[in-house]
Structures are given as C-alpha cells and as structure tokens.
Write a structure and sequence with these properties.
With 355 residues, the chain is mainly beta. It has a domain at 273-355: Immunoglobulin-like (Sandwich). The protein has helices at 219-245, 261-268, and strands spanning 272-282, 289-295, 306-311, 316-323, 327-334, 342-352. The chain has a 3-stranded antiparallel β-sheet. A 3-stranded antiparallel β-sheet has the order 2-5-4, with no helix packed on it. The chain is rod-shaped.
Length: 355
C-alpha cells in the first residue's frame, strides 16, 4: 500500500483526489483562503458570532434585505445619517424632540393654535401694536389704570353716561351750563347775593311785603322821609291849633286854595319839587291807544320821582309808559267801541329837585 511516507511533497494534485475525500480534519488551520471559497459558499450558519466586522463588509454590500427587523440600534447610526426622507410620516414623537429643538423655522404659519399656548405665556412683547381690538377684550377688563389721561373724548360718552358721582368738585363751570339750565330748584337758599344781581333787575314784583325796611333806604331817601315826618308833625300841630281857634264850621275848600294838605307838606320839605298840570288828548280814528307826553318846567334829580295821571273820559284809561328826569310819557287806551274820544289828562309829579 502507498502511505503518506512514500508520497513526495506536492505529489497529490487535485485530479488525484476523489470528490468529498477532503474532510474538515484534513484541513490545516488557516489553510482555506478566500481563493478556495466558491462564490456564495459561506452561508450565515458558517459564520461565528461577531466574526464579521466592518473590514469584512464591502462598501454598499449590506442591502435592506440583509438586515433583520429591529437589527439597527442607535449606536449603529452615524451622526446625521437619518435624514428627513428616512422618517416615516408621524414617526417623530414628542419624546424624540430635544429641548428647544423646535424653533420658529420649524413652525409653519398659523401652526400654534390657542390650545397649544400655556397659561400666561403671551406677554406684551408678543402682541403687535394695534392688534388688540374691541372683540379681543373681555367685558369689564378695561379699568381706570388702562386709560391714559385725556384719552376719553366727548364722542366716547353715551347720552346720560356721566352721572353726578363722576363729576369732580368745582368741575362744572359757567361755560358748561346751557342757557336756562339753572332754575330755582338748582339754587341753594341764600346762594344769590347782591353781587349776582344785574343793575335795576329787582323791581316791585320781586319785593315781599314789608321787605324794604328803613335801614335799606339810601341816606338821601331816609333823610327825605325824616324831613317829611317832621313836616307832617308840624302840619298836624298847625291844624290842631287852627281847629281850636275856629269858632265857626270849617268852610269848604275854595278852588284857589290847596285841596290836599300833602301839597303844603311837600312844598315845605327842602329839595322837593311838586309839579302838576293837564294835557289834551284826542283819538283820530280806529286806533286803540295813543301816547301823550308832558315835559316839566324844571327837571327832577333823576327818574325816581312819583308821577300819576288820569283821563277825564269814562271810556279811556291812562298808564305810565316811561319817564325820565325831564318828562313822562303816558299810554291812553280806549276801553270800548265808541266815537273817537278826547279830553284831558290830569297829572301830578313829586320828587327830588335837580341841583
């Protein structure tokens, strides 16, 4: 028989070996090189665990079909290797986002809705000027602290919206009052002093009975009354003395004698002038009134003298229209339809003489 000792090195060539005669035990360690391996002859079951490293894998040789499900871990992915087109729709969840990873560039316009905002997250710096209109304000949210001084104008106020409590002390001036707005209800008792009355605004209609006392009279009027009182006392004394001396009844007063003792009294008071007379009047047609004027021989000191007049026709009445220091004018009025009346006006005036 032929044993290994008889065979020279290299004498057994491939053609001398029968198929399947070279078993694992016949192979020396490291004797099988890549050239001895047929393409596709190394299957998964022939690979030891961890035997295939990066050096054994050709570039581009690991295709998706070669990867088992869930075989890729995070450490196997190079930085930046997962691009947007590798991510499935909806695959990025909140837990996958790093803090502050989502900036303005990542947000689409109008992507942040009301329910995405945290409470009190919108501050004044986030609100554009003039973006808050009336519809954004809650009812009662605008108080006095939000309104700048002078911001509320007249057209902002509704009718009747300004109540008494809203008015400051002394804020309603004369220019704010409409004509006729202040009636007697608005005047406090004693509010109208003498300096508030216009000249000659108080006439006899405004004076209560007994309101004018002696201390309210001007000094010259008070003096005149005192002189008149003294003259009256003197006249009374003279009349009393004359009555005692008379032994026969008193004769009727003759036309040439004074008809009124007052005339003698007035004449006796220094500085007092008494004037009287008559003036004709005549209606010329259908008019219902005419004016008649009388001029005084000497003017009075002012128009504060007393004058009275009367018509001598029963169908006419006479009233004072106006007066001045120099003359007085009367209105003569017809009281019924009749032929045009005519006659005389009897008049008398008494007052302070002009200096």
């Amino acid at each position: 028989s032929v044993d290994s000792a008889i065979l020279a090195d290299g004498s057994v060539i491939a053609s001398k070996l029968a198929d399947g005669v070279v078993t694992t035990s016949k192979l020396a360690e490291g004797s099988v090189e890549s050239a001895a391996l047929a393409d596709g002859s190394v299957i998964a079951s022939k690979l030891a665990a961890g035997s295939v490293d990066t050096f054994a894998i050709a570039d581009g040789s690991v295709t998706p079909e070669k990867l088992s499900a869930d075989s890729l871990r995070a450490f196997a992915l190079a930085e930046g290797s997962v691009t947007a087109d590798k991510l499935a729709e909806g695959s990025v969840k909140t837990s996958a986002l790093a803090f502050f990873a989502v900036g303005t560039n990542q947000l689409e316009n109008s992507a942040v809705t009301f329910d995405k905002l945290a409470a009190a997250s919108v501050g004044s710096i986030h609100i554009e000027e003039r973006s808050v209109d009336g519809g954004k304000l809650a009812e009662g949210s605008v108080n006095a602290g939000h309104i700048s001084q002078g911001a509320i104008l007249a057209y902002h106020l509704g009718e009747g919206s300004v109540e008494r409590e809203a008015l400051g002390e002394w804020s309603v001036t004369g220019s704010k009052l409409a004509p006729g707005a202040v009636g007697f209800e608005q005047l406090a008792d004693g509010a109208v002093g003498g300096d508030k009355l216009q000249a000659e605004s108080v006439n006899s209609l405004h004076l209560a009975a007994g309101a004018v006392t002696f201390d309210k009279l001007a000094p010259e009027v008070g003096g005149l009354l005192a002189d008149l009182g003294g003259a009256l006392q003197a006249t009374k004394l003279q009349l009393a003395q004359a009555e005692i001396k008379l032994e026969q009844p008193v004769q009727p007063v003759q036309p040439q004698q004074p008809a009124f003792p007052m005339l003698a009294v007035a004449a006796a008071v220094p500085g007092v002038a008494l004037t009287f007379g008559h003036v004709d009047y005549a209606f010329g047609g259908i008019e219902d009134r005419i004016e008649v004027s009388v001029s005084f021989d000497a003017p009075y000191a002012d128009d504060a003298y007393v004058v009275f007049a009367m018509a001598d026709h029963p169908g006419c009445i006479c009233s004072l229209k106006e007066k001045s220091a120099e003359k007085a004018t009367f209105d003569v009025c017809r009281t019924r339809l009749s032929p045009a009346p005519n006659g005389r006006i009897q008049w008398m005036a008494v007052g302070l003489k002009s200096n």
